Amino acid sequence: MIKEAIIPLAGLGTRLLPFSKILPKELLPLGNKTILEHILDECLEAGIKKIILVTSKRKRIIKDYLYPDPYLLNYLKKKNDIKSIQKLKILDRYRKKIKFVYQNSPKGLGDAVLTAKSIVKEKFFLLVLPDDIIIKENCSKKMINIHNKYQSSVIASKKVNNSEVSRYGIIKYSKKINNNLFISDLVEKPSVKNSPSNYAIIGRYILPSKIFSSLKKTKKGSSGEVQITDAMKHLIYNDNKFVGHLFSGAYLDCGTVNGYNNSLKKM
Ligand code: G1P
User: Fold this and answer.
1) Domain that includes residue 160, residue range
2) Number of domains in the chain
3) How many C-beta atoms lie closer than 10 Å to residue 13's C-beta?
4) Which end of the chain is more exposed for a tag (fewer CB within 10 A), N or C?
């Protein structure tokens, strides 16, 4: 069973500037909740018991959002504003499940995952990227089923156009069974010419805890950052089974201004 999840939140959100200068993109609203709550709910509904939030000192506001504000609660109680109190109470359901770790300089996704190393206790864990929202299907839950079936690592995947391959990690696969690709290699943000397929990595991964030792050895890669894709490649080359799952839910790219605005229209 997969019981632990890591959610990296320490990134500077440069693709969403200037909106993300003060307000972390994860706290932007999408429908009736924030982007972060979409991700947290997906984890809880998939049976995750421990969620590790990787944040930074610059983004303390995320913790403030998830924890009670005694001043505000007192004010609402005095006014007997039960409705508003109930709106705040919705956030209480996460509290027992979340733990914070800090990555104070943005050294990449791989480095963010590495900061959670000492808290991850199980053999496999879930990694969810808040840029990628998937609605109409609990993608994490589906991937846990696939992990149980194949006893493998699992990566969410989606077919993208040629014009989009350089924005994603791309999968090379040896065979395809239904919606599952048996991965033989990965390339981080290739040019169209060097892209081994049009199947992109979308931000949901079930990874073995041995990825931590692989990450320790991983040198800075694409964008001068420690990439999770490079650490996964290392495991793939050493005969660890990785399956790419073509999910059927609707994908909302919340990592860019255009993507976020389009996502709002789809809610
Ligand atoms: C990261 C991963 C990339 C993946 C993408 C999905 O890139 O490195 O492989 O395709 O997330 O959103 P980033 O968006 O952090 O540049």
Assistant:
1) 4-266
2) 1
3) 20
4) N
- CA dist 29 and 36 (Å) reads 9
Parallel/antiparallel/unpaired status of strands 124-128 and 199-208: antiparallel
54, 107, 160, 168, best to mutate for ligand 1 pocket (most atoms within 8 Å of CB): 168
Most ligand 1 atoms within 8 A of CB, residue of 109, 229, 256 to mutate: 109
For residues 89 and 73, what is the distance between their CA atoms, to the nearest angstrom? Answer: 10
- Residue among 181, 160, 159, 161 nearest 172 (CA): 181
Tell whether ligand 1 has an atom less than 6 A from the beta carbon of residue 170. no
Distance CA 187, CA 197 (A): 10
Q: What is the CATH number of the domain that holds 202?
A: 3.90.550.10
Is pTM beyond 0.90? Reply is yes
Predicted pLDDT of residue 222: 78
